[in-house]
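Sequence in, structure out. Go.
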Amino acid sequence: MKQSLQLKLGQHLTMTPQLQQAIRLLQLSTLDLQQEIQEALDSNPLLELVESAPADDIVPGMASSQQELPEETPGATEREAAEPDTVDDVAAESMPADLAVDTSWDDIYEAGGAGPAGSGEEGQDFEQYTAEATTLSDHLLWQLNLTPMSETDRMIAISIIDAIDADGMLSVGIEEIAEGFGPESGIETDEIVAVLHRIQHFDPVGVGARDLRECLLIQLRQLDPEEPAVRHARMIIDKHIQLLGAKDYATLMRRLHIGEPELKAAIRCIQQLNPRPGSVISAGAAEYVVPDVIVSRRNGRWLVELNPEIAPRLRVNSYYAAMIRRADNSADNVFLRDNLQEAKWFIKSLQSRNETLLKVARCIVERQQGFLEHGPEAMRPMILHDVATAVNMHESTISRVTTQKYMYTPGGIFELKYFFSSHVSTAAGGECSSVAIRAIIRKLVGAENPRKPLSDSKIASILEEQGINVARRTIAKYREALGIAPSNERKQLV
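Output:
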């Protein structure tokens, strides 16, 4: 057996730790990125957040990512030099030289001085003091504690309240509640029904109903029964709720022996009711979206800039960096040197993320100027490949950049993915974006006759007259995506 040596040439891609970190930061949302930055600041002593520093001390690309920078205001340097630099300087100017022996700190300064400047009771952030939202169950239990009941009825009432869902409806049957007590308790269904009727008088009106019909009837009992509209509404909900759901207005008028004006008044009365009374109490907290990119129009040009809130200014701590240069090869110095390298990698990855995000956003704005100026109907078809070719990046990179990233425009806040859509061929040989078709469908439905709403086939015919060939099934898919009901459910009396 002879041994031989062979030389082979090949190429392979190695994912270095810094490259993995850059890719991971690239696909993070704004909230996740802020959490990642905070964790890096907590774990790495050589990283620090720059609140206010000269431009030379800030890592390039982190201080500002705007296309245009405002001119320096004359006299700003003089004003900044005249202002005290630290809290100690402020205290030195305002603190009396001599204080009485029995003088306390609170006699001179207000408590809570660590808060923001000028933060009195009027300037405090009320979100910090917002109490936990009251749930529907807590609201009902609070009313229960104010209601005189026997111990048995109170126990039944607690079981009923536990079975009421967030919409205010009773999620289980009376028999199931009775089974929960057991035969040894001696509690019958009639007792449970009686306690349920007492709970149905609690706020909000309609809570504890077993179905939609009962919920609406409970609310109608709170209105004047002598009113003809209320009387007709009760008859509709009690006996003809199925016809109302099917919008069979002709049959309703024939069954109730009323005319169209009376039916309109009854329907308006029903529309004022709340089919989910519990939502009034258990409404969720509002969720806010922080845009990553801000688009504005200045001097006839569209300007793209990063949101400064998601582009914090980071730098390496100069004190620890100087210690590394003066120290030896001890364990502490090795620790500092490793953290210094990690800090540089982290800052470089953030800078690369911001540059990539800004580059992709500028490309999107350049291609979608029609949308920014005229609305969704002017949206151009665009796919990931188009942007990847324009910015000379891979499609996977563009996908990571545009996921969970938002752009603020004069027309609202949109996810970057919103600007990518498929296309439909037009009769003239051009292309029309699916987003534009959805906007046209919404416009057509908004302008339709409520008595005779447009069907999917009719909408397809109208689009065909405009040179856009779209199948009826596609129209139905776009309509459902917009949350628009079918034509038979949109029919209503005017």
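Check: The radius of gyration is 33 Å. The chain has three domains: 134-284, 293-419, 423-490.
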